[in-house]
TrEMBL record, chain A:
Protein name: Small ribosomal subunit protein uS10m
Family: Belongs to the universal ribosomal protein uS10 family.
Small ribosomal subunit protein uS10 domain sequence ranges: 37-134
Annotated GO CC locations: mitochondrial small ribosomal subunit
Organism: Calypte anna (Anna's hummingbird)
Keywords, sorted A to Z: Mitochondrion, Ribonucleoprotein, Ribosomal protein
Top-rank taxon, per record: Eukaryota
Length: 163, 341
Protein backbone atom coordinates (compact mmCIF):
# COMPACT_ATOMS: atom_id res chain seq x y z
CA UNK A 1 0.00 0.00 0.00
CA UNK A 2 1.19 3.50 -0.70
CA UNK A 3 1.82 5.45 2.47
CA UNK A 4 1.10 8.84 0.98
CA UNK A 5 1.44 12.28 2.43
CA UNK A 6 -1.41 14.57 1.62
CA UNK A 7 -0.45 18.20 1.97
CA UNK A 8 -2.73 20.95 3.17
CA UNK A 9 -4.51 23.47 1.01
CA UNK A 10 -7.72 21.78 -0.12
CA UNK A 11 -11.13 21.78 1.46
CA UNK A 12 -12.68 19.21 -0.86
CA UNK A 13 -11.64 15.86 0.71
CA UNK A 14 -12.47 16.52 4.31
CA UNK A 15 -13.97 13.04 4.64
CA UNK A 16 -10.84 11.35 3.26
CA UNK A 17 -8.31 11.74 6.07
CA UNK A 18 -10.90 10.89 8.69
CA UNK A 19 -11.78 7.50 7.22
CA UNK A 20 -8.42 6.55 5.70
CA UNK A 21 -5.78 6.01 8.41
CA UNK A 22 -2.92 5.98 5.88
CA UNK A 23 -3.41 9.61 4.83
CA UNK A 24 -1.48 12.24 6.77
CA UNK A 25 -1.75 15.97 6.19
CA UNK A 26 1.17 18.33 6.58
CA UNK A 27 1.25 22.12 6.75
CA UNK A 28 3.70 22.67 3.92
CA UNK A 29 2.25 24.58 0.99
CA UNK A 30 1.97 22.44 -2.12
CA UNK A 31 4.10 23.01 -5.15
CA UNK A 32 2.01 23.48 -8.29
CA UNK A 33 2.79 21.96 -11.66
CA UNK A 34 1.38 23.86 -14.58
CA UNK A 35 2.11 21.05 -17.02
CA UNK A 36 3.41 17.50 -16.70
CA UNK A 37 4.46 15.96 -19.99
CA UNK A 38 5.04 12.21 -20.26
CA UNK A 39 7.02 10.90 -23.21
CA UNK A 40 6.89 7.09 -23.38
CA UNK A 41 9.28 5.27 -25.70
CA UNK A 42 9.06 1.65 -26.77
CA UNK A 43 9.87 -0.78 -29.54
CA UNK A 44 6.33 -2.15 -29.94
CA UNK A 45 3.45 0.12 -30.88
CA UNK A 46 0.78 -2.26 -29.57
CA UNK A 47 2.30 -2.13 -26.08
CA UNK A 48 2.32 1.68 -26.20
CA UNK A 49 -1.32 1.76 -27.31
CA UNK A 50 -2.38 -0.41 -24.38
CA UNK A 51 -0.31 1.75 -22.06
CA UNK A 52 -1.98 4.86 -23.46
CA UNK A 53 -5.43 3.44 -22.67
CA UNK A 54 -4.28 2.63 -19.13
CA UNK A 55 -2.65 6.04 -18.46
CA UNK A 56 -5.56 8.04 -19.86
CA UNK A 57 -8.13 6.05 -17.87
CA UNK A 58 -6.04 6.41 -14.70
CA UNK A 59 -5.79 10.18 -15.21
CA UNK A 60 -9.54 10.44 -15.75
CA UNK A 61 -10.30 8.40 -12.63
CA UNK A 62 -7.97 10.52 -10.49
CA UNK A 63 -9.50 13.73 -11.85
CA UNK A 64 -6.48 14.97 -13.82
CA UNK A 65 -7.20 16.94 -17.00
CA UNK A 66 -5.45 15.47 -20.02
CA UNK A 67 -4.55 18.23 -22.45
CA UNK A 68 -3.22 16.27 -25.41
CA UNK A 69 -2.34 12.71 -26.33
CA UNK A 70 -0.35 12.28 -29.50
CA UNK A 71 2.15 9.99 -31.17
CA UNK A 72 5.30 11.70 -32.37
CA UNK A 73 6.71 9.98 -35.48
CA UNK A 74 8.85 6.91 -34.87
CA UNK A 75 12.63 7.03 -35.22
CA UNK A 76 14.48 4.17 -36.87
CA UNK A 77 18.17 3.58 -36.25
CA UNK A 78 19.67 1.43 -39.00
CA UNK A 79 23.16 0.10 -39.44
CA UNK A 80 24.89 -2.14 -41.91
CA UNK A 81 27.44 -4.71 -40.76
CA UNK A 82 29.59 -7.27 -42.48
CA UNK A 83 27.86 -10.62 -42.60
CA UNK A 84 30.99 -12.70 -42.30
CA UNK A 85 33.72 -12.73 -39.68
CA UNK A 86 36.51 -12.53 -42.24
CA UNK A 87 36.49 -11.02 -45.80
CA UNK A 88 33.33 -11.19 -48.00
CA UNK A 89 32.98 -7.43 -48.07
CA UNK A 90 30.16 -7.54 -50.61
CA UNK A 91 27.84 -9.45 -48.31
CA UNK A 92 26.42 -7.42 -45.53
CA UNK A 93 23.56 -7.64 -43.08
CA UNK A 94 21.37 -4.72 -42.01
CA UNK A 95 19.74 -4.20 -38.60
CA UNK A 96 17.29 -1.57 -37.50
CA UNK A 97 15.89 -0.44 -34.16
CA UNK A 98 12.47 1.21 -34.20
CA UNK A 99 11.49 3.51 -31.37
CA UNK A 100 7.81 4.47 -31.14
CA UNK A 101 6.77 7.42 -29.00
CA UNK A 102 3.68 8.35 -27.05
CA UNK A 103 3.26 11.83 -25.56
CA UNK A 104 0.73 12.57 -22.81
CA UNK A 105 0.33 16.15 -21.63
CA UNK A 106 -1.44 16.75 -18.33
CA UNK A 107 -2.44 20.13 -17.00
CA UNK A 108 -2.71 21.68 -13.56
CA UNK A 109 -1.47 19.13 -11.02
CA UNK A 110 -0.57 19.61 -7.40
CA UNK A 111 2.55 17.93 -6.09
CA UNK A 112 0.73 15.19 -4.19
CA UNK A 113 -1.55 14.39 -7.14
CA UNK A 114 1.47 14.34 -9.43
CA UNK A 115 3.37 12.08 -7.03
CA UNK A 116 0.44 9.65 -6.78
CA UNK A 117 -0.24 9.53 -10.52
CA UNK A 118 3.39 9.27 -11.56
CA UNK A 119 4.18 6.54 -9.06
CA UNK A 120 1.12 4.52 -10.14
CA UNK A 121 1.88 4.94 -13.82
CA UNK A 122 5.60 4.22 -13.43
CA UNK A 123 5.14 1.10 -11.35
CA UNK A 124 2.98 -0.31 -14.14
CA UNK A 125 5.40 0.62 -16.89
CA UNK A 126 5.91 -2.53 -18.99
CA UNK A 127 9.34 -4.07 -19.38
CA UNK A 128 11.33 -2.64 -22.27
CA UNK A 129 9.54 0.72 -22.24
CA UNK A 130 11.23 3.97 -21.19
CA UNK A 131 9.68 7.20 -19.98
CA UNK A 132 10.71 10.87 -19.67
CA UNK A 133 8.68 13.10 -17.40
CA UNK A 134 8.96 16.86 -17.95
CA UNK A 135 7.46 18.86 -15.07
CA UNK A 136 6.86 22.61 -15.27
CA UNK A 137 6.60 24.01 -11.77
CA UNK A 138 5.21 27.49 -11.17
CA UNK A 139 6.48 29.68 -8.33
CA UNK A 140 6.13 33.15 -6.95
CA UNK A 141 8.97 35.63 -7.31
CA UNK A 142 11.31 35.09 -4.34
CA UNK A 143 11.44 37.71 -1.58
CA UNK A 144 14.87 38.99 -2.47
CA UNK A 145 13.89 39.97 -6.02
CA UNK A 146 10.85 42.04 -5.09
CA UNK A 147 12.79 45.27 -4.46
CA UNK A 148 16.36 46.23 -5.39
CA UNK A 149 18.50 46.09 -2.28
CA UNK A 150 20.45 49.21 -3.12
CA UNK A 151 17.58 51.30 -1.74
CA UNK A 152 17.53 49.53 1.59
CA UNK A 153 21.27 49.15 2.15
CA UNK A 154 23.02 51.88 4.17
CA UNK A 155 25.43 54.18 2.33
CA UNK A 156 28.41 52.04 1.32
CA UNK A 157 31.84 53.48 0.44
CA UNK A 158 33.02 53.55 -3.16
CA UNK A 159 35.84 51.05 -2.57
CA UNK A 160 33.53 48.39 -1.17
CA UNK A 161 31.16 48.70 -4.11
CA UNK A 162 34.01 48.22 -6.60
CA UNK A 163 35.32 45.08 -4.88
CA UNK B 1 21.28 -31.22 -6.71
CA UNK B 2 23.51 -32.07 -3.74
CA UNK B 3 21.38 -35.18 -3.34
CA UNK B 4 22.25 -36.34 -6.89
CA UNK B 5 26.02 -36.11 -6.41
CA UNK B 6 25.66 -37.80 -3.01
CA UNK B 7 23.89 -40.71 -4.62
CA UNK B 8 26.50 -41.07 -7.39
CA UNK B 9 29.35 -41.08 -4.88
CA UNK B 10 27.52 -43.59 -2.72
CA UNK B 11 27.13 -45.94 -5.67
CA UNK B 12 30.74 -45.60 -6.74
CA UNK B 13 31.96 -45.99 -3.14
CA UNK B 14 30.92 -48.37 -0.41
CA UNK B 15 28.06 -50.71 -1.03
CA UNK B 16 27.45 -51.57 2.57
CA UNK B 17 25.53 -48.44 3.44
CA UNK B 18 23.78 -48.40 0.07
CA UNK B 19 20.34 -49.44 1.24
CA UNK B 20 20.12 -46.72 3.88
CA UNK B 21 21.47 -44.09 1.42
CA UNK B 22 19.03 -44.97 -1.32
CA UNK B 23 16.03 -44.80 1.00
CA UNK B 24 17.10 -41.39 2.36
CA UNK B 25 17.56 -39.93 -1.10
CA UNK B 26 14.25 -41.24 -2.38
CA UNK B 27 12.34 -39.61 0.48
CA UNK B 28 13.81 -36.21 -0.42
CA UNK B 29 12.08 -34.70 -3.51
CA UNK B 30 14.28 -36.04 -6.28
CA UNK B 31 12.07 -36.24 -9.35
CA UNK B 32 9.00 -34.62 -7.83
CA UNK B 33 6.00 -36.89 -7.71
CA UNK B 34 7.92 -39.55 -9.60
CA UNK B 35 10.13 -40.13 -6.54
CA UNK B 36 7.35 -41.67 -4.47
CA UNK B 37 6.12 -43.90 -7.23
CA UNK B 38 9.62 -45.15 -7.98
CA UNK B 39 10.37 -46.33 -4.42
CA UNK B 40 9.50 -50.03 -4.98
CA UNK B 41 11.30 -49.96 -8.36
CA UNK B 42 14.54 -48.68 -6.81
CA UNK B 43 14.50 -51.26 -4.07
CA UNK B 44 13.99 -54.10 -6.53
CA UNK B 45 16.90 -52.85 -8.68
CA UNK B 46 19.42 -52.70 -5.87
CA UNK B 47 21.13 -55.74 -7.26
CA UNK B 48 22.04 -53.93 -10.55
CA UNK B 49 25.00 -51.62 -9.95
CA UNK B 50 25.23 -50.22 -13.52
CA UNK B 51 25.20 -46.52 -14.42
CA UNK B 52 22.18 -46.95 -16.64
CA UNK B 53 19.89 -47.67 -13.70
CA UNK B 54 20.70 -44.27 -12.24
CA UNK B 55 19.26 -42.51 -15.30
CA UNK B 56 16.24 -44.71 -15.74
CA UNK B 57 14.97 -44.06 -12.22
CA UNK B 58 12.41 -41.39 -12.99
CA UNK B 59 11.17 -42.85 -16.29
CA UNK B 60 9.03 -45.75 -15.19
CA UNK B 61 5.55 -46.00 -16.72
CA UNK B 62 4.05 -45.23 -13.31
CA UNK B 63 5.57 -41.72 -13.47
CA UNK B 64 3.03 -40.51 -16.08
CA UNK B 65 0.50 -38.60 -13.97
CA UNK B 66 -3.16 -38.22 -14.73
CA UNK B 67 -3.97 -35.24 -16.97
CA UNK B 68 -5.50 -32.39 -14.88
CA UNK B 69 -7.80 -29.99 -16.80
CA UNK B 70 -6.59 -26.34 -16.81
CA UNK B 71 -8.00 -23.77 -14.41
CA UNK B 72 -9.89 -22.05 -17.23
CA UNK B 73 -12.54 -24.75 -17.27
CA UNK B 74 -13.41 -24.08 -13.65
CA UNK B 75 -13.69 -20.29 -14.07
CA UNK B 76 -17.10 -18.60 -13.77
CA UNK B 77 -18.10 -16.00 -16.34
CA UNK B 78 -18.66 -13.34 -13.68
CA UNK B 79 -15.52 -14.04 -11.66
CA UNK B 80 -13.32 -11.32 -10.18
CA UNK B 81 -10.55 -11.08 -12.79
CA UNK B 82 -8.35 -8.82 -10.62
CA UNK B 83 -7.79 -11.74 -8.27
CA UNK B 84 -6.63 -14.00 -11.12
CA UNK B 85 -4.05 -11.44 -12.32
CA UNK B 86 -3.48 -9.01 -9.42
CA UNK B 87 0.02 -7.99 -10.55
CA UNK B 88 2.04 -8.10 -13.72
CA UNK B 89 2.74 -11.74 -14.57
CA UNK B 90 3.62 -13.76 -17.65
CA UNK B 91 0.86 -15.14 -19.76
CA UNK B 92 -0.32 -18.47 -18.36
CA UNK B 93 -2.45 -20.34 -20.92
CA UNK B 94 -4.12 -22.33 -18.19
CA UNK B 95 -5.25 -19.16 -16.37
CA UNK B 96 -6.53 -17.05 -19.27
CA UNK B 97 -9.89 -18.34 -20.59
CA UNK B 98 -9.48 -16.72 -24.00
CA UNK B 99 -8.86 -18.64 -27.28
CA UNK B 100 -5.88 -16.46 -28.19
CA UNK B 101 -3.66 -17.36 -31.12
CA UNK B 102 -0.34 -15.68 -31.85
CA UNK B 103 2.56 -16.26 -34.17
CA UNK B 104 3.28 -16.89 -37.83
CA UNK B 105 0.74 -19.36 -39.28
CA UNK B 106 1.79 -22.72 -40.65
CA UNK B 107 1.32 -23.16 -44.42
CA UNK B 108 -2.43 -23.18 -45.14
CA UNK B 109 -3.07 -23.08 -41.43
CA UNK B 110 -3.75 -20.79 -38.52
CA UNK B 111 -1.46 -19.08 -36.02
CA UNK B 112 -0.39 -21.41 -33.21
CA UNK B 113 -2.63 -21.86 -30.18
CA UNK B 114 -1.92 -20.43 -26.75
CA UNK B 115 -0.56 -23.64 -25.16
CA UNK B 116 3.21 -23.41 -24.99
CA UNK B 117 3.24 -20.24 -27.14
CA UNK B 118 6.50 -18.37 -26.60
CA UNK B 119 5.33 -15.26 -28.43
CA UNK B 120 2.47 -14.81 -25.99
CA UNK B 121 4.81 -15.26 -23.04
CA UNK B 122 7.44 -12.83 -24.36
CA UNK B 123 5.24 -9.80 -24.96
CA UNK B 124 4.29 -7.68 -21.92
CA UNK B 125 0.58 -8.21 -21.23
CA UNK B 126 -1.85 -5.85 -19.55
CA UNK B 127 -4.05 -8.56 -18.06
CA UNK B 128 -3.50 -7.08 -14.61
CA UNK B 129 -4.71 -3.64 -15.78
CA UNK B 130 -8.25 -4.23 -17.00
CA UNK B 131 -10.60 -1.22 -16.66
CA UNK B 132 -12.31 -2.50 -13.48
CA UNK B 133 -8.88 -3.14 -11.93
CA UNK B 134 -7.70 0.38 -12.84
CA UNK B 135 -10.89 1.85 -11.37
CA UNK B 136 -10.33 -0.09 -8.15
CA UNK B 137 -6.71 1.10 -7.88
CA UNK B 138 -7.68 4.72 -8.56
CA UNK B 139 -10.50 4.60 -6.02
CA UNK B 140 -7.96 3.54 -3.41
CA UNK B 141 -5.45 6.21 -4.54
CA UNK B 142 -7.96 9.05 -4.75
CA UNK B 143 -7.59 9.83 -1.03
CA UNK B 144 -3.97 10.78 -1.54
CA UNK B 145 -4.66 13.36 -4.25
CA UNK B 146 -5.34 17.03 -3.67
CA UNK B 147 -7.32 19.41 -5.81
CA UNK B 148 -5.91 22.14 -7.95
CA UNK B 149 -6.85 25.59 -6.55
CA UNK B 150 -9.97 26.65 -8.43
CA UNK B 151 -8.87 30.30 -8.63
CA UNK B 152 -6.08 29.40 -11.08
CA UNK B 153 -8.12 28.04 -13.93
CA UNK B 154 -6.32 29.73 -16.82
CA UNK B 155 -2.72 30.17 -17.90
CA UNK B 156 -2.93 33.96 -17.60
CA UNK B 157 -3.96 33.77 -13.95
CA UNK B 158 -1.13 31.33 -13.23
CA UNK B 159 1.23 33.76 -14.93
CA UNK B 160 -0.06 36.66 -12.89
CA UNK B 161 0.24 34.99 -9.47
CA UNK B 162 3.17 32.66 -10.14
CA UNK B 163 5.39 34.25 -12.77
CA UNK B 164 8.42 31.96 -12.52
CA UNK B 165 8.35 28.57 -14.32
CA UNK B 166 10.87 25.88 -13.47
CA UNK B 167 11.23 22.93 -15.80
CA UNK B 168 12.88 19.66 -14.78
CA UNK B 169 12.99 16.29 -16.56
CA UNK B 170 13.02 12.82 -14.95
CA UNK B 171 14.17 9.75 -16.88
CA UNK B 172 12.98 6.18 -16.31
CA UNK B 173 14.41 3.27 -18.25
CA UNK B 174 15.33 -0.35 -17.74
CA UNK B 175 19.02 -0.87 -17.35
CA UNK B 176 21.75 -1.54 -14.86
CA UNK B 177 21.47 1.95 -13.35
CA UNK B 178 18.50 4.16 -12.45
CA UNK B 179 20.62 7.32 -12.67
CA UNK B 180 20.62 9.56 -15.73
CA UNK B 181 23.09 12.45 -15.91
CA UNK B 182 20.64 14.51 -17.98
CA UNK B 183 18.27 14.70 -15.03
CA UNK B 184 20.23 17.45 -13.30
CA UNK B 185 19.37 20.13 -15.91
CA UNK B 186 17.04 22.88 -14.63
CA UNK B 187 15.44 25.54 -16.86
CA UNK B 188 14.11 28.75 -15.31
CA UNK B 189 11.71 30.95 -17.32
CA UNK B 190 10.32 34.31 -16.32
CA UNK B 191 8.66 37.22 -18.13
CA UNK B 192 10.47 40.51 -17.55
CA UNK B 193 7.18 42.39 -17.32
CA UNK B 194 6.50 40.57 -14.04
CA UNK B 195 9.76 41.70 -12.44
CA UNK B 196 10.05 45.06 -10.73
CA UNK B 197 12.34 46.79 -13.26
CA UNK B 198 12.49 50.36 -14.48
CA UNK B 199 13.46 51.37 -18.00
CA UNK B 200 17.23 51.56 -17.48
CA UNK B 201 17.26 48.32 -15.43
CA UNK B 202 15.34 46.44 -18.09
CA UNK B 203 17.68 47.56 -20.89
CA UNK B 204 20.75 46.71 -18.80
CA UNK B 205 19.36 43.29 -17.94
CA UNK B 206 18.67 42.51 -21.58
CA UNK B 207 22.23 43.54 -22.47
CA UNK B 208 23.67 41.41 -19.63
CA UNK B 209 21.68 38.36 -20.56
CA UNK B 210 22.17 38.44 -24.33
CA UNK B 211 20.96 35.32 -26.13
CA UNK B 212 18.78 34.08 -23.27
CA UNK B 213 16.13 36.77 -23.77
CA UNK B 214 13.44 36.45 -26.42
CA UNK B 215 12.03 39.79 -27.52
CA UNK B 216 8.84 38.40 -29.07
CA UNK B 217 7.58 36.66 -25.95
CA UNK B 218 9.40 38.87 -23.42
CA UNK B 219 10.73 35.70 -21.78
CA UNK B 220 14.05 35.26 -20.02
CA UNK B 221 15.24 31.62 -20.05
CA UNK B 222 18.10 30.48 -17.83
CA UNK B 223 19.29 26.88 -18.24
CA UNK B 224 21.68 25.56 -15.60
CA UNK B 225 23.49 22.25 -15.58
CA UNK B 226 26.86 23.08 -14.13
CA UNK B 227 26.21 21.48 -10.72
CA UNK B 228 25.99 17.73 -10.18
CA UNK B 229 22.61 17.79 -8.37
CA UNK B 230 19.26 19.15 -9.47
CA UNK B 231 18.69 21.06 -6.25
CA UNK B 232 22.07 22.77 -6.59
CA UNK B 233 21.26 23.75 -10.16
CA UNK B 234 17.94 25.20 -9.08
CA UNK B 235 19.62 27.24 -6.33
CA UNK B 236 22.23 28.44 -8.80
CA UNK B 237 19.51 29.51 -11.24
CA UNK B 238 17.72 31.53 -8.57
CA UNK B 239 21.06 33.03 -7.53
CA UNK B 240 21.73 34.08 -11.14
CA UNK B 241 18.33 35.72 -11.37
CA UNK B 242 18.92 37.61 -8.12
CA UNK B 243 22.35 38.82 -9.20
CA UNK B 244 21.07 39.94 -12.62
CA UNK B 245 18.18 41.79 -11.05
CA UNK B 246 20.31 43.69 -8.56
CA UNK B 247 23.12 44.42 -11.00
CA UNK B 248 20.68 45.87 -13.51
CA UNK B 249 19.41 48.37 -10.95
CA UNK B 250 22.95 49.62 -10.30
CA UNK B 251 24.28 52.44 -12.49
CA UNK B 252 28.03 52.31 -13.05
CA UNK B 253 30.10 55.40 -13.82
CA UNK B 254 31.10 54.14 -17.25
CA UNK B 255 27.46 53.77 -18.31
CA UNK B 256 27.34 57.50 -19.03
CA UNK B 257 29.64 56.81 -22.02
CA UNK B 258 26.82 55.01 -23.81
CA UNK B 259 27.01 55.98 -27.46
CA UNK B 260 24.37 56.14 -30.13
CA UNK B 261 25.39 52.70 -31.49
CA UNK B 262 24.62 51.08 -28.12
CA UNK B 263 21.10 52.45 -27.93
CA UNK B 264 18.36 49.84 -28.21
CA UNK B 265 15.75 52.22 -29.59
CA UNK B 266 15.85 55.48 -31.47
CA UNK B 267 15.60 58.67 -29.41
CA UNK B 268 14.88 61.82 -31.35
CA UNK B 269 16.03 64.36 -28.77
CA UNK B 270 19.63 65.44 -29.42
CA UNK B 271 19.83 63.51 -32.65
CA UNK B 272 20.96 64.54 -36.10
CA UNK B 273 17.37 64.52 -37.36
CA UNK B 274 16.33 67.06 -34.74
CA UNK B 275 19.34 69.26 -35.47
CA UNK B 276 18.71 69.19 -39.22
CA UNK B 277 15.00 69.88 -38.89
CA UNK B 278 15.57 72.82 -36.56
CA UNK B 279 18.34 74.24 -38.76
CA UNK B 280 16.13 74.02 -41.84
CA UNK B 281 13.20 75.67 -40.10
CA UNK B 282 15.37 78.49 -38.74
CA UNK B 283 16.79 79.13 -42.21
CA UNK B 284 13.29 79.15 -43.74
CA UNK B 285 12.13 81.63 -41.13
CA UNK B 286 15.27 83.78 -41.67
CA UNK B 287 14.73 83.88 -45.42
CA UNK B 288 11.14 84.98 -44.86
CA UNK B 289 12.56 87.71 -42.60
CA UNK B 290 10.49 86.71 -39.59
CA UNK B 291 11.87 87.64 -36.19
CA UNK B 292 14.21 85.09 -34.64
CA UNK B 293 12.17 82.22 -33.40
CA UNK B 294 13.76 80.34 -30.54
CA UNK B 295 14.47 76.62 -30.60
CA UNK B 296 12.06 75.86 -27.77
CA UNK B 297 9.21 77.51 -29.65
CA UNK B 298 9.99 75.51 -32.75
CA UNK B 299 10.21 72.29 -30.72
CA UNK B 300 6.88 73.00 -29.12
CA UNK B 301 5.13 73.65 -32.42
CA UNK B 302 2.73 71.09 -33.81
CA UNK B 303 4.51 70.45 -37.12
CA UNK B 304 7.81 69.60 -35.44
CA UNK B 305 6.13 67.27 -32.95
CA UNK B 306 4.35 65.48 -35.77
CA UNK B 307 7.63 65.10 -37.66
CA UNK B 308 9.32 63.75 -34.53
CA UNK B 309 6.65 61.10 -33.98
CA UNK B 310 6.76 59.90 -37.56
CA UNK B 311 10.58 59.65 -37.59
CA UNK B 312 10.62 57.71 -34.26
CA UNK B 313 7.93 55.34 -35.54
CA UNK B 314 9.89 54.73 -38.76
CA UNK B 315 13.15 53.96 -36.97
CA UNK B 316 11.74 51.78 -34.19
CA UNK B 317 9.03 49.85 -35.95
CA UNK B 318 10.52 49.63 -39.42
CA UNK B 319 9.08 50.71 -42.75
CA UNK B 320 5.37 50.02 -43.16
CA UNK B 321 2.77 51.62 -45.43
CA UNK B 322 1.28 53.51 -42.52
CA UNK B 323 4.60 54.82 -41.24
CA UNK B 324 5.73 55.97 -44.65
CA UNK B 325 2.51 57.87 -45.36
CA UNK B 326 2.68 59.52 -41.94
CA UNK B 327 6.26 60.62 -42.61
CA UNK B 328 5.25 62.02 -46.00
CA UNK B 329 2.41 64.06 -44.47
CA UNK B 330 4.58 65.39 -41.66
CA UNK B 331 7.39 66.46 -44.05
CA UNK B 332 4.88 68.19 -46.30
CA UNK B 333 3.47 70.13 -43.35
CA UNK B 334 6.93 70.96 -42.03
CA UNK B 335 8.22 72.40 -45.28
CA UNK B 336 4.88 73.88 -46.28
CA UNK B 337 4.77 72.04 -49.56
CA UNK B 338 1.40 72.02 -51.23
CA UNK B 339 1.12 69.29 -53.80
CA UNK B 340 -1.35 70.44 -56.40
CA UNK B 341 -2.97 67.39 -57.99
Amino acid sequence: NLVGVRLAGSQANTEGPKTNPLVSISDEPETLYKRVSLLVKGHDKAVLDSYEYFAVLAAKELGISVEKVHNPPKTVERFTLLKSVHIYKKHRVQYEMRTHYLCLELKYLTSSTAAVYLEYVQRNLPEGVAMEVKKTKIEKIPEHIREPIWDTLPQVEETEVKS
Amino acid sequence: MAAVSGVAQARAGCRAGLTRYCRRVVLAPFFGSAAYSSVPAVNSREGQQTEGSARRRGRTPQSVRAHIPPRTERMAVDQDWSSVYPTAATFKPGSVPLPVRMGYPVKRGVPPAKEGNLELMKIPNFLHLTPPAIKKHCAALKDFCTEWPSALDSDEKCEQHFPIEIETIDYISSGTSIRNPKARVVTLRVKLSNLNLDDHAKKKLIKLVGERYCKDTDMLTITTDRCPLRRQNYDYGIHLLTVLYHESWKTETWESEKAEEDMEEYIWENSRSQKNALDTLIRIKASENVSNVTKEELLASEVVKDYRNSVVALKNEGETENNMSRYKESVKKLLNIQVSL
